[in-house]
Amino acid sequence: MKNLPFSRWTMALGALIALGGSVTSVIPANAAAYHTVSTQKIKQTAYHKKRRSGAIYNKKHTKKVSNLTTHPHTTWYATKQAKLKHGKSTGIYLYVQNSKHTVKGWIWHGYLKKGKAPFVLTKAKAAVALDAKTGKVVWSKHANTARPIASVSKIMTLYLTLKKIDGKKSNWQHKVKITSRGLVSMSRSADCGGFHFKLNHRYTVKQLYYAAFLDSSNNAAIALGKWVSGSNGKFIRKMNAQAKAWKLGKAHFVSASGLENSDLRRFGYAYGKANANKVSAKDVALIARHLMTAYPRVLKDGKIGSMKVNGQLCYNYNNLLKGRKYYRASLKVDGLKTGYTPLAGYCFVGTGHKSGKHRVITVVLHDINEFTETRSLMDHAYRLSSMNN
């Protein structure tokens, strides 16, 4: 289509699209050109997109670099300003680039507004960052909406277990006899099990604690609940009573483990009318804060990558720990609990204590990128002045 008059070029372009042809972002050579009237350097200034439309071009506007719609949460840094003339129109354009310097070019100033792009988590359906010292919410996304939380539920089970143990060695060493065939069957289940139980075998409370905490064993969590309260139902009522005592208005439990009743039913452990534990991201963070404040040992235990329990390997799936794929030394992550069911998605409650800052607690719910988004959320929380010691 080279050398066609501009009006005929646009008509030909439409015909090409109609025929299913591909279109590049290069403007025809004889289209109305952009001419530089003046250019000046400016102090580096942060901008972010003002509206959905807009694109970045080379200075002559003969090649499109990128659409703003593909960078909805990017902060752009402007270092030059130019007055460009296009036909009879004259406009102010900014030379911008992203923080990684991988996208750069010129854009009309009206497509941007000053300031860094607001912090967002794109994958999490709900999330929160909490200052562990003050209990103040630092950042949130749908944080007051109760959602299924899968095995993150176990932080409440761990709290009530540690409360029952009360620091007594005799309680840690107390032996729990497994007489439930349902729990044995659950332990052997490909989708619900993990830490294998033997019928009529006795496990210490300490073994069940580590199996539930590190290996996220559902059967171990239920066995702990029965030890704490005498029965599964009584323990779940205790979970809800504790949530009420803490004034957690967006928390309701039907399971000690985090499994939904649709799974628990086949093992004989369904409870209540609702299908799943539903807790808001904020209330999860507050439960974690109560747990860590009352029983700081969970921070030491939460850093254990794996350990043998009754001859079985219990593996901690927190991939922000040292030596794991998403580890970052500066974040000082030392906990706390992962979770997943198809209904709840990937969930994670994390905590870290960066040097010179308050400890932070983060929660992401139904987040396919739970570890990368937790890292971003922790970084953002630490950048806020209120997190300084």
UniProtKB/TrEMBL annotation:
Residues 122-367 form the Peptidase S11 D-alanyl-D-alanine carboxypeptidase A N-terminal domain. It holds the Pfam family Peptidase_S11. Residues 1-31 form the signal peptide. Its EC number is 3.4.-.-. InterPro entries: Beta-lactam/transpept-like, Peptidase_S11, Peptidase_S11_N. The keyword Transcription does not apply. It comes from the Bacteria. GO terms for molecular function: carboxypeptidase activity. Gene3D superfamilies: DD-peptidase/beta-lactamase superfamily. Keywords: Carboxypeptidase, Cell shape, Cell wall biogenesis/degradation, Hydrolase, Peptidoglycan synthesis, Protease, Signal. Belongs to the peptidase S11 family. This is D-alanyl-D-alanine carboxypeptidase family protein. It comes from Levilactobacillus angrenensis.
